[in-house]
């Protein structure tokens, strides 16, 4: 049985263009940049969201692209950020030309979501409890 050492999960994402991914996650979404370290198979760029580490991995060798979209294949399909400013985030992302998997919508009373694609086509969900 797992005994958590902190109240969050960390996530690692292998990317094709580290500058584009840093621009999206650090500059556009505002995740805090912590630093880098070599991980043997590439360079890990650590960003922070709350108590979670969001790790962008710049591989030493280009990785093949996998299936995109919510139901394209089995496995992990998206990451969720619970936020308080969904409209502001979506306005910024729309102005930058970000593509949506799901436009902003209320999925049940008091819960609004939007899902967008990051530079590699990975799905990023934003949830706002209203």
Describe the protein's architecture and organization.
The longest helix has 11 residues, at 18-28. This protein has a 4-stranded mixed β-sheet, with helices on one face. Strands 5-8-7-6 form a 4-stranded mixed β-sheet. Helices cover 16% and strands 43% of the residues. It is an alpha/beta fold and 130 residues long. The N and C termini lie far apart (34 Å). It is built from 2 helices and 8 strands.
List keywords for this structure.
four-stranded mixed β-sheet; 2 helices; 130 residues; globular; 8 strands; alpha/beta
Give a short synopsis of this structure.
With 130 residues, the protein is an alpha/beta fold. Helix content is 16%, strand content 43%.
Give the arrangement of secondary structure elements.
Elements: E1 11-14, H1 18-28, E2 32-38, E3 42-49, E4 52-59, E5 78-83, H2 86-95, E6 100-108, E7 111-117, E8 123-129
Parallel strand pairs: 1-4, 5-8
Antiparallel strand pairs: 2-3, 3-4, 6-7, 7-8
